[in-house]
Amino acid sequence: RDLPHVVTIAGRRRYLSSISADTAGMNERGRLDRGADERKAVNTVCQGSAADIVKQAMIYLHSRLSPLPPARISINTDADAAAAAATTVITAATAAAAAATATV
Description:
InterPro entries: DNA-dir_DNA_pol_A_palm_dom, DNA/RNA_pol_sf, DNA_polymerase_A. By secondary structure, the protein is mostly helical. Helix content is 58%, strand content 6%.
């Protein structure tokens, strides 16, 4: 509540106008806006940090899979299925990369 912004784990900032405002002089609408901004702050940290993690995982996978011969690889980034699918894809990709490295 002291700063006018929130920060994700990768350092991205989202500025929220009424998050650091003093509620003493606010009318009902101002207090509602502040409450909405507080909810946005929590969601931004959670969802933004999750996006940062997925981005880093995709960068890592790209760096590991780029030397391999072209293959049809589908990575599902749908929010509902991401947790289960990411574990499966990362495990399969790591195994494939290890197998390809071992045979070279």
